[in-house]
């Protein structure tokens, strides 16, 4: 009896693993199961080995685990990369010829199902995926009528023959799944049925629309591109200007033109693309143009491991751009926060007229999860621009350093933005006193930021002695790990605002006797930042930088060793 | 004569006495005035360089941003508020060198802006290096043996990429420059106006006299709607033709092609997002 299952689909690029994943998690979620899925893939369009892990659980989960309960293999090279994740309890399902003899030594449970032969009988190997979908539905005893209905709506435009064949395929798989008689004892919950199945990418896209985003320009770069695709798909309903820029330099400048003219604009990129944007970030800083930049991190330097994950670009973002100026960096760890923080990013950018960066990574954007409804009535799109008077000046010295921002054609004044050091009116100046005053003004803009600052969240025991510190996408994994460890002395501090450091940082860190830092990078970049700002040092660091996210087991083991 | 685009106090410019930019500035202000353009509806997006400083000397809206980046900024502005008249202005190094990639793609977008390029075949602000349009053999402070690179041909490039308006003028003929600018502003779609002008401090080769001797006016009977004829003109370099070299008023513009303005003409700053609709979308995922 198990109340937590992990199914791993393993095959090569181009075999349609994603289709099985998306169909299955939707059917499972709609049947009341908590689901989470995450994908790791090679940088190629065909071949190689890609895997998707689907978790079905009693409890809410949002994390990658090493353990594989059911491994479904789609081609010959599907197992070797997963060897160290197999246990004696793992059930390997696939065509006999796809399972190498060395695995047939009695250590593993093996079930031969020749998906492609079965598919050929139905009408072609193309139906293999739907048989697998049926198999999963059968294992978890989903309502067959519901599955048939999904098949019909999914293939609606393909004609009767295709629909009929797919239904045959799904029934074939479903029957096999039922025959397995796996002792699945996962409780379903009707509340989950009404939840939303969201990807990390979707969370940023929805958050952007809720923040009033009506302009996006970006240059395609994995793994960040999903966000501009999402907004393109919904550009008609929401009137979003969507433009694929010729390069990242263009994108970052285009969105500044857009904000200048009164739009709420963003760009999306990864580390390499952001490196090209740096000059533009600096330009936004001195012209005091609000901007929102989403960065989905992947391992560098340079091309690095382009389809993999890493939290390696925090320092890049912290110090991006020549000259001295403030910025805000947010790092959602779950999809609710992805929506809430991206929504807020637009308001913060507009209010403080500073670059606001949303930092995610491949693991975050490419994962899916059943997600609770969000209260949209709490959201407010705050426009901070003003209707200008005749003698409007753009860079007026004010008490809080924030000069009211005008928009051309809105009011009687001229709106003059300047990238040179400038006077209050926006004219080039080399007056030393004005230069000093303007620098102070810009650097002081976040003085009142406390009101908007988002505290780190403490998960677990309030009377902790050991505090695990993590930020962004490691959230789900660390959370599940400490729930498993279930020790009253341990808590997890989840930082979703990484810069400026939240006001409660020092307080929560000094309360712990033992600090453990968890980062998906090699140099503990967030740890360095905390040390610089608070003088608090982490003696214990759990770091991973092979391109894969942490697994729950890995965190449990390392925390237990270092507690 | 004072125009609507002059400041109450004349700003001190950063240009050398005798610089061609003075004529261009004067013509620009008069052109805007004569076309009765509302200064509140005009935006100048400029890069960096002596030419880009023009934006500092005209009393209107401006975004004086980064070197080479005036075109993406102008694109963002125009796409967010199509009611604005947007000028992207800079020099030959700014637009054709640093901003070369943006130049190509702004043309392809047919964004409805006027791209004014002050082309003096030299870098002024950085003290006299070759520009993309410097002629082969020109000796400069950096190209000591003379330029060996093929000069960039903005007119041919623009026509090839489907630019809907391509013109060349000379600051020495202010009347013709004004006429061309008026036509460019009235044109729907991307308009390139490449303006030859002398740099008195750093370009001792392509002087006022040189431009005068090495240019000619397009014939009255020249058909500027014929792309192949226009390309032939673009490749004439022993004497450069002046005038509107190519024009196609039938192309749809970038803003016209956007979903954003198909049923709603309001600029983005006048719009509000319907959060109920966003919530609906969220729940439908």
Secondary-structure map with pairings?
The complex is a heterodimer of chains A (563) and B (285).
Chain A: E1 4-13, H1 17-30, E2 34-40, E3 47-57, E4 70-73, E5 91-94, E6 109-112, H2 115-122, H3 128-139, H4 144-154, H5 160-180, H6 190-193, E7 196-199, H7 200-210, E8 215-218, H8 226-233, H9 235-238, E9 241-244, H10 248-260, E10 265-269, H11 271-287, E11 291-297, H12 314-319, E12 328-330, H13 335-352, E13 355-361, H14 362-365, E14 368-371, E15 385-388, E16 405-411, E17 416-418, H15 432-443, E18 457-460, E19 466-471, H16 475-485, E20 490-495, E21 497-499, H17 505-510, E22 514-519, H18 525-534, E23 540-543, H19 552-562
Parallel strand pairs in A: 1-4, 4-5, 5-6, 8-9, 8-10, 10-11, 11-13, 12-13, 15-16, 19-20, 19-22, 22-23
Antiparallel strand pairs in A: 1-3, 2-3, 2-14, 7-14, 12-21, 18-20
Helix pairs in contact in A: 1-3, 2-3, 3-5, 4-5, 7-8, 7-13, 10-11, 16-19
Chain B: H1 20-34, E1 42-46, E2 61-64, H2 70-80, E3 85-91, H3 92-98, H4 100-109, E4 114-119, H5 154-160, E5 165-170, H6 174-186, E6 191-196, H7 208-213, E7 215-217, H8 227-234, E8 240-247, H9 254-257, H10 275-284
Parallel strand pairs in B: 1-2, 1-3, 3-4, 4-6, 5-6, 7-8
Antiparallel strand pairs in B: 5-8
Helix pairs in contact in B: 1-6, 3-4, 5-8
